[in-house]
């Protein structure tokens, strides 16, 4: 098992392995978040996803999120693993584990981590639908740019 | 020279993930304009990272810099 707290991998991610990295005697709570590949989005069927990352910078940004969390919730310990490459329906794309003495910090810090990942970590996903492909576009991961670039309402 | 990195749809539009530029534009803003003109791509919503740190348009560039063009991210 890789001991690095913040990592990008092209191998399947084990929730158990990420949780083990944050277990410690001081912890009375561990929260885990698993982001998985969804088959149906607004009635449209996904066949599989392709994730790509600027790996070296993505790992630095995950570490930065860890530093932000240590500042906001000093008693927590965080580990994040994000997978890249081809992922099938139901596969785990990201696991975030946070341990803390009490549950509230563990929940809040975990939520903070996934929101920050969607803002600053250079990872992109390409949807492979039954009838084509699309790079998913905005920072909330909910909008696709069919022409490969933002248009209309998305422009500043 | 500086090295340019392209990801996701930008990589497909440019046709390369990595390009070495022999000249060094003075700022990030000038580089963006040059890249937009050369490859006919729109970088309005694209963030730039210089040596793996997010950079503003007025940041100056140095020979040897690695400049990454980062479309809106969609991890998670």
UniProtKB/TrEMBL annotation, chain A:
Q: Which pathway does the database say it acts in? A: Cofactor biosynthesis; molybdopterin biosynthesis
Q: How does it assemble?
A: Heterotetramer of 2 MoaD subunits and 2 MoaE subunits. Also stable as homodimer. The enzyme changes between these two forms during catalysis.
- Which Pfam families does the entry mention? MoaE
EC class of this enzyme?
Answer: transferase
User: Which EC numbers characterise this protein's activity in its record?
Assistant: 2.8.1.12
Entry protein name: Molybdopterin synthase catalytic subunit
Q: Which InterPro entries match?
A: MoaE_sf, Mopterin_biosynth_MoaE
Catalysed reaction equations from the record: 2 [molybdopterin-synthase sulfur-carrier protein]-C-terminal-Gly-aminoethanethioate + cyclic pyranopterin phosphate + H2O = molybdopterin + 2 [molybdopterin-synthase sulfur-carrier protein]-C-terminal Gly-Gly + 2 H(+)
Gene3D superfamilies xrefs: Molybdopterin biosynthesis MoaE subunit (3.90.1170.40)
What family does this chain come from, according to its entry?
Belongs to the MoaE family.
Q: Name one GO biological process term.
A: Mo-molybdopterin cofactor biosynthetic process
User: What SUPFAM superfamilies has UniProt attached to this entry?
Assistant: Molybdopterin synthase subunit MoaE
* Keyword list, A-Z: Molybdenum cofactor biosynthesis, Transferase
- Does the keyword section mention Phosphoprotein? no
GO molecular-function term, one example from the UniProt record: molybdopterin synthase activity
UniProtKB/TrEMBL annotation, chain B:
Q: Which GO terms describe its cellular component?
A: molybdopterin adenylyltransferase complex
Q: Which domain of life does the protein's organism represent?
A: Bacteria
Gene Ontology biological-process annotations: Mo-molybdopterin cofactor biosynthetic process
Annotated Pfam families? ThiS
- Give the record's pathway: Cofactor biosynthesis; molybdopterin biosynthesis
Gene Ontology MF, one: nucleotide binding
Q: Has UniProt tagged this entry with the keyword Nucleotide-binding?
A: yes
Alphabetized Gene3D superfamilies for the sequence: 3.10.20.30
Q: Which NCBIfam families match?
A: moaD (TIGR01682)
General function of this protein: Involved in sulfur transfer in the conversion of molybdopterin precursor Z to molybdopterin.
Record protein name field: Molybdopterin synthase sulfur carrier subunit
Annotated source species: Parageobacillus thermantarcticus
Per the UniProt record, the lineage of the source organism begins with: Bacteria, Bacillati, Bacillota, Bacilli, Bacillales
């Amino acid at each position: 098992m890789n001991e690095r707290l913040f990592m990008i991998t092209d191998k399947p991610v084990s929730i158990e392995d990420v949780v083990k990295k944050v277990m410690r005697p001081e912890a009375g709570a561990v929260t885990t978040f698993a982001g998985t590949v969804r088959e149906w989005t607004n009635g449209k069927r996904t066949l599989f996803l392709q994730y790509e990352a600027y790996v070296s910078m993505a790992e630095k940004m995950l570490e930065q999120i860890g530093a932000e969390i240590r500042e906001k919730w000093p008693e927590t310990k965080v580990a994040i693993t994000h997978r890249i490459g081809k992922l099938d329906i139901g596969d785990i794309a990201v696991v975030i584990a946070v341990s803390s003495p009490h549950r509230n910090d563990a929940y809040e810090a975990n939520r903070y981590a996934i929101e920050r990942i969607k803002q600053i970590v250079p990872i992109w996903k390409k949807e492979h639908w039954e009838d084509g492909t699309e790079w998913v576009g905005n920072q909330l991961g909910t909008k696709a740019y069919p022409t490969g670039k933002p248009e209309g309402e998305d422009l500043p | 020279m500086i090295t340019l990195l392209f990801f996701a749809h930008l990589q497909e539009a440019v046709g390369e993930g990595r390009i070495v530029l022999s000249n060094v534009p003075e700022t990030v803003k000038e580089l963006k304009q040059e890249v937009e003109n050369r490859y006919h791509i729109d970088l309005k919503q694209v963030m730039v990272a210089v040596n793996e740190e997010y950079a503003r348009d007025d940041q100056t560039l140095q020979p040897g810099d690695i400049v990454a063009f980062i479309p809106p991210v969609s991890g998670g």
